[in-house]
Amino acid sequence: MKPGLKRGFDQKVFVNRSLTLENIKCYGFDMDYTLAVYKSPDYESLGFELIRDRMVSIGYPHELLRYTYDPSFPTRGLVIDTTYGNLLKVDSNGNILVCSHGFCFLKGEDIHKYYPNKFIQRDDTDRFYILNTLFNLSETYIYACLADFFTKCTRYTNLLKDTMDFIHDTGTLKERTIKNLEKYVKKDPNIRVLLSRIKEVAKVFLATNSDYGYTEAIMKYLLEDYIKTGNPKQSWRSFFDLVVVDTRKPLFFAEGTVLRQVDTNTGKLRIGTYTGDLQHGTVYSGGSSDIVCDLLDVKGKDILYVGDHIFGDILKSKKRQGWKTFLVVPELSKELQVWEEKKNLFEELKRLDVFLAEFYKHMDSGSRECPDIRDIQTRMKVLTYRMDMSYGQMGSLLRSGSRQTLFASQLIRYADLYSSSFINLLHYPFNYLFMAPPVLMPHELAAQNSADFASSELSAVTKTED
C-alpha cells in the first residue's frame, strides 16, 4: 500500500482477538465460498431451481414451479423450526428476534402463540436446524416457499433434507457449475498474487470437503487460466504445500477419516492408508487436522485457517485444535454499506436507550410512580424495523436493531479475524499486528454513557445561555 493511502472499509480485515501475522507459519484455506467465490444470486438461484425441480420430480405439486429465487429474502444464520415450519432469527441465547411463516412475518402476539416465551431451546437439534452456510441460502428460500404453499410444513421438512442431500451427493449442482464456470464462479487474478506471496513466507495448504474432480476443475479455472501464452504452465497444485480433498469437515477436526493418496491422472484413490512423509504436489483424501499438522510439521497455534463456514471451518478448528481463525463473510460488503448509510438510526437507538435509563435514574424499590415510556418504546421499534429493512426482508446477518444475532455472537467468539474476502490480506504486510479494539463491559459502558449524557446536557444548557 502506498504511503498516505488508507484502506477502505471493503479492504479491511476486522479483529476480534489480537494476532501477529509474523507468528503464523502456515496458512490453510477452504475452497468453496473462500478461494472459490460463487456469483450471487446466480449460484443460489441455480441451487434453488435444482432442489425445486427435484422435489417436483419425486411427487411434490407442480405448482411449486411458479416460485423463483428472491435474493432479498433469505439471510444466513436463520433457524428452521421443523415442527411449525417457521424461519427464526435468534440471538445467542435463543431469544427470538424475527419470525416468519413462509413470507408472512409474525407480530409479537402471533409469535407468542408458537413460542410463549419468544425463546427456543437451541440444544433441541432434532427440532431446530441452523442454516449457517452460504450453501443454505437456497435451502432457506425453499423452506419459505413450502411454508407459503402448504398450511403445515412438518411432514415436508425431512423430504426437503433428503432432496438437499440428493443434489449434493449426486454432484448435480457441481456438474452444472463446471459446465458454466464463468457464470457461477468469480475470477480474481489477486488469488494467484496472494497465494504466491504467502508461500514466500509460510506454508500453505488447501482443505476442502469437495472431491478431487471438482476441486481440480475449480482450481485450474482460478489459478491456471491467467498463465500468459508461451510461459511454462504452472500447475494450480504448485501454489500449495499440501492439498487435501474429501475432508468431511467438521469430522476432519476431530478423529477424521483414513488418509489416502489421490491418483491425479485418474482422480481415483489409491489403495491403502497413506503413512509416509509429505510429497510436494501430491493430493490426499480424508485425513484429519492432526495429520495435517504432522505432515507440515506445525502446531495448531502456528496455523491461520481461512474459511466461510462458522461451524465446519471456524468453530471446530478453534475449539478442538486451537488454530487461529479467519472467517470470510461475503455479506459484510453490503452490511458495511448499509451501516454507513443508516448508522444515524443506530445512534438514535443508543440515545433512546440512555434516555430510558435516565427516566428511572431517581427511582428505587420504594417508588410507586410508573413513567410512561410507551412513546419511546414505539420509536425504538420503528427504528429497529427501518434498520432491518435496509438490509433485506430478513434484516441484517449480524443484528436486529441493537441486539446481535446468533451468527454475530459466534463470529465474535470463534473468529480471530474476519473480512468480506480473504483477498484483503493483500493489503497488510506479513509482519502486521492485528490489534483487537478494547471492549467495555456493561458497567463500564454505563459509566461512559452517563458521562456522555451529562456532557450533552451541559452543552445544551451552555448553548441556551449563550
TrEMBL record:
Gene3D superfamilies: HAD superfamily/HAD-like. Keywords: Hydrolase, Magnesium, Metal-binding. It comes from the Eukaryota. It holds the Pfam family 5_nucleotid. The active site is at D30 (nucleophile), D32 (proton donor). Binds 1 Mg(2+) ion per subunit. GMP binds at D32. GO terms for molecular function: 5'-nucleotidase activity; metal ion binding. Its cofactor is Mg(2+). InterPro entries: HAD-like_sf, HAD-SF_hydro_IG_5-nucl, HAD_sf, Pur_nucleotidase. One of its GO terms (biological process) is GMP metabolic process. Coiled coil: none annotated. Mg(2+) binds at D30, D308. Belongs to the 5'(3')-deoxyribonucleotidase family. This is Cytosolic purine 5'-nucleotidase. It comes from Pleuronectes platessa. The lineage of its organism: Eukaryota, Metazoa, Chordata, Craniata, Vertebrata.
